[in-house]
User: What shape does this take?
Amino acid sequence: MKNMLDSKCAFCQKDVQENNFAESENFLAIYNVAPILPGHSLIIPRWHVHSLMELSKQELCEMTVFARDVVKVLIKEFGHTAFNWTIQEGVEAGQTVPHLHLHLIPRKAKDLPQPGDWYPLLEQSEIELIDSDARPKLSFDEMKVIATKLKATAKEVLSQ
Ligand SMILES: [Zn+2]
Assistant: This one.
C-alpha cells in the first residue's frame, strides 16, 4: 500500500478520517454520511488505495479481520446479526469513489420491502458521498455524536 492521500478524494479528507470509530494499523471504520439503514458503516484504508489488488496478502487479511471486529461492534450497538458486506471493485461494478471501501450494512427482517432492495439505495448513497450538490443525510454534528457512541462501544467490545 502506498502511503499517499489524494486531496480531492472524499475518503482522504482529514475530518472524515478523524471521525473514525475504530482503527487498525492500516484501516479505519467510519459511519456512512448517507446511511441506507441504521448502522451502515465503511471500512477504508488510511491511504488512497483504489483497488483490493493494491493490498498485500497481509493487508487484505488485516482488513478482513478488522471488518469482522467492526461487525461485532455494530451487532452490539444495533442488535442486528445479518449483514451485507459489499465492495464495488471497479467503475463497471458501480465503484464511484476511487478509494477502496467495504460497506457493512446491518440487516433485519422486513427492514426493506425485499432483501435485495439495498443495492439501488447504496448507489444513491455513493452519489451523495461525491456530489457536492447532494445534501448529506447526516450533518457533521450528527456524525460526531454517532462516531463517539460507536467508539465507546468499540472500546468495550474489542477489548474483550
Ligand atoms: Zn482517497
In short: The chain has one domain: 10-158. Residues 6, 9, 11-12, 48, 99 surround zinc ion (CB under 6 Å). Helices lie at 14-18, 57-78, 118-130, 140-158. The first strand starts at residue 22 and ends at 23.
